[in-house]
Amino acid sequence: KNQVEQSPQSLIILEGKNCTLQCNYTVSPFSNLRWYKQDTGRGPVSLTIMTFSENTKSNGRYTATLDADTKQSSLHITASQLSDSASYICVVSAWSNFGNEKLTFGTGTRLTIIP
Amino acid sequence: DAGVTQSPTHLIKTRGQHVTLRCSPISGHKSVSWYQQVLGQGPQFIFQYYEKEERGRGNFPDRFSARQFPNYSSELNVNALLLGDSALYLCASSTWGPTTGNEKLFFGSGTQLSVL
């Protein structure tokens, strides 16, 4: 069964500090791994998409890493801002028998930035 | 350019009723997917449609159905509502096609459905 596990479930840090969120997955056949940011009551917004051959990808202060051998990914946030307060969801894509991608979502890490 | 739009934004229904949720994709996107997100959980895949054809279905009962129209907009229908159907229903569009992959999904803000 395809699964995506994220840790920690929640995290509180001071504004300006860095943090790292973790994602472990058991999904096959692997297509890509995505990180999304979801503000409360809104739809998720894509931060990064990484394929098997990509080890790292950045989007501003967000840097995602992927270790396809250990099936782990991390999302590092640098110099956090109050607007970074949100849920961060790890999503792993697998190829389905129909030739399309089946996405498995993690339950997310709830990040709170305090001034 | 308009993003993915969903309507209504909020909806309150009682058990046993049915509901229709609507989604308009980003212009040029031919693929629409529906997800259910229960509070505190990640989204769960319900359906994917491409060019008006169902391309994927998640583990949801037959009470859930959907369709895509010639203009690529989509409707999600849920019959015989249960309390457990209370959730945020998200629609996502992409440029995905049968020969593409790694397509970025663009989500709408969702419809918050409450079943009493």
Please supply descriptive tags for the structure shown above.
heterodimer, A: 115 residues, mainly beta, six-stranded mixed beta sheet, 0% helix, globular, B: 116 residues, seven-stranded mixed beta sheet, 11 strands
Low-confidence stretches of chain A: none
Helix/strand-derived class of chain A?
Answer: mainly beta
Strand content of chain A: over 45%
Work out the radius of gyration of chain B.
13 Å
Q: If you average the pLDDT of chain B, what whole number results?
A: 91
Return Rg of chain A in Å.
Answer: 14 Å
Q: What can be said about the biggest beta sheet of chain B?
A: 7 strands, mixed
Gist of the model:
The complex is a heterodimer of chains A (115) and B (116). With 115 residues, chain A is mainly β.
Question: Would you give an account of this structure?
Answer:
The complex is a heterodimer of chains A (115) and B (116). With 115 residues, chain A is mainly beta. Chain A has strands at residues 3-7, 10-14, 19-26, 30-38, 45-51, 56-59, 62-67, 72-77, 86-95, 101-105, 109-114. In chain A, the strands form two sheets. In chain A, strands 2, 4, 5, 9, 10 and 11 form a six-stranded mixed β-sheet that branches. In chain A, strands 1-3-8-7-6 form a five-stranded antiparallel β-sheet, with no helix packed on it. The model of chain A has no long low-confidence stretch (mean pLDDT 92). With 116 residues, chain B is mainly β. Chain B has strands at residues 5-7, 10-13, 19-24, 31-37, 44-50, 53-57, 64-68, 74-78, 87-94, 106-107, 111-115. In chain B, a hairpin with a 6-residue loop joins β4 and β5 (44-50). The mean pLDDT of chain B is 91. The chains are: A mainly beta (115), B mainly beta (116).
Record the SSE blueprint.
The complex is a heterodimer of chains A (115) and B (116).
Chain A: E1 3-7, E2 10-14, E3 19-26, E4 30-38, E5 45-51, E6 56-59, E7 62-67, E8 72-77, E9 86-95, E10 101-105, E11 109-114
Chain B: E1 5-7, E2 10-13, E3 19-24, E4 31-37, E5 44-50, E6 53-57, E7 64-68, E8 74-78, E9 87-94, E10 106-107, E11 111-115
Parallel strand pairs in B: 2-11
Antiparallel strand pairs in B: 1-3, 3-8, 4-5, 4-9, 5-6, 7-8, 9-10, 9-11
